[in-house]
Structures are given as structure tokens and as C-alpha cells.
Specification:
globular; 7-stranded mixed sheet; Rossmann fold
Length: about 210
């Protein structure tokens, strides 16, 4: 015979992040996507960011992969905390950024996973984590992601300081150019930077990754 449960007998549902939901059925969000959205960032893209932005303090790279961004930051003299959901032989694995409740460094710089709303979740969570510590947030995003009805409120309520449009940036699946689809080959990228002291409109700037 079934009966109603008393409140103390009801087990709370476990907290599930957007990361867990995205990869609930396996490592690929879709057949043409890289496992766990691993698209390494070419070092010249990070060097370009450092040529125009200063980071006074430690930096957290929460989707570090094989260290493509972290190594450039470290070589520039920054103290870098590198974590990732998966193990790629670099940084601390097993850390779901969206489950973190405290910042591991002052600033956050990363190329977030894109599929199933993960990039949006990364941006929002990074802004929450740095809200009270004076840190910047720099995200490498697909430039078309700036123009979308679902993101309009985010960008108007939390306007970035600067959007840096990169002239060339190639983020291949798992770093393998042979697996590139025509859609990915046509992708264009930008660094979107939020700063706690910023007030006013967003600045748009063109940025070379070479020369």
C-alpha cells in the first residue's frame, strides 16, 4: 500500500549544473561536435588579448584543456589556476566550473564550451564569482553569439567593457584540423571582456592575432 511521505522522508533532488545536463547522455553534444566541447585556443589569440588588457592578480582558467590559454598567461608572468571538467594532462581535472561557489583567482579567462547554453552559463557564473573581488572576465566567444534575442538582456544588463574582434582564430576540434566542418571553418571569434569598474557603452575594437 502506498502512502504520502512525511517531509523528513523526502530526499532532496541532487543539484545538477548545466554542465551535467549537457553531457548527461555522453561526451558529445551532437555528432559533429568534439567530445566535451574541447576546442583548443591558438596561443596567438591569448597573446593578442594580453597586448591590450592588463590583469593585476591571479587568473583562473576553468576550461583549461591542455593548457593552451594557461601556458600563454603563465609565460607572461601571471599566476594561473588551471582546472577542467575532464583530464587532458594539464591542470586539475574533475572540477565543474558551474558547480564552483568561490572564485579560485581574481580574474577569469577562458574559451568556454559552447553547446546547449554552456557558454551563456559560463559567462553568467563568471560574472557572479567576480562580482565582489574586482576581477575581470574575458571569454573567447563566437562573434555571432553577440547578436541573439536570448542574450540581449545579458549584454544590456551586464555590458562588457570591450569586445575585441579577432582577425584570425582557428579553434579546431581536439586541436585536429582534419576534423573541421565547413561551418566551423567559417566561425569567427572575439574576446569579450567585462570589468567591474566599467560604466557606459561597450567599446568595439579590431585586434590582430599575428604581426
Amino acid at each position: 500500500m502506498t502512502r504520502l511521505l512525511f517531509p523528513h522522508e523526502i530526499k532532496p533532488r541532487p543539484f545538477e549544473t548545466a554542465t551535467a545536463r549537457a553531457f548527461r547522455f555522453g561526451p558529445r553534444i551532437s555528432p559533429n561536435r568534439a567530445p566535451y566541447e574541447f576546442y583548443p585556443t591558438p596561443p596567438e589569440a591569448t597573446r593578442a588579448l594580453l597586448s591590450v588588457e592588463q590583469f593585476d592578480g591571479s587568473i583562473w582558467e576553468p576550461a583549461c584543456g591542455q593548457g593552451h590559454i594557461s601556458k600563454v598567461l603563465a609565460s607572461a608572468g601571471h599566476q594561473v589556476v588551471s582546472t577542467d571538467l575532464m583530464s587532458y594532462g594539464y591542470g586539475e581535472a574533475g572540477r565543474d566550473f558551474l558547480a564552483e561557489r568561490k572564485p579560485l583567482a581574481k580574474h577569469i579567462v577562458t574559451n568556454p564550451p559552447y553547446g546547449r547554453g554552456l557558454a551563456d552559463a559560463f559567462v553568467k557564473h563568471a560574472l557572479q564569482l567576480t562580482e565582489n573581488n574586482g576581477g575581470k572576465v574575458a571569454m573567447l566567444l563566437a562573434i555571432q553569439s553577440l547578436c541573439h534575442p536570448l542574450r540581449h538582456q545579458l549584454f544590456t544588463e551586464y555590458p562588457p567593457k570591450t569586445v575585441y574582434c579577432l582577425d584570425r582564430c582557428e579553434c579546431w576540434p581536439e586541436g585536429k584540423s582534419g576534423r573541421v566542418t565547413p561551418t566551423l571553418a567559417a566561425q569567427r571569434y572575439c574576446w569579450v571582456v567585462w570589468a567591474p569598474s566599467h560604466a557606459g557603452p561597450t567599446r568595439l575594437q579590431w585586434l590582430r592575432t599575428s604581426g
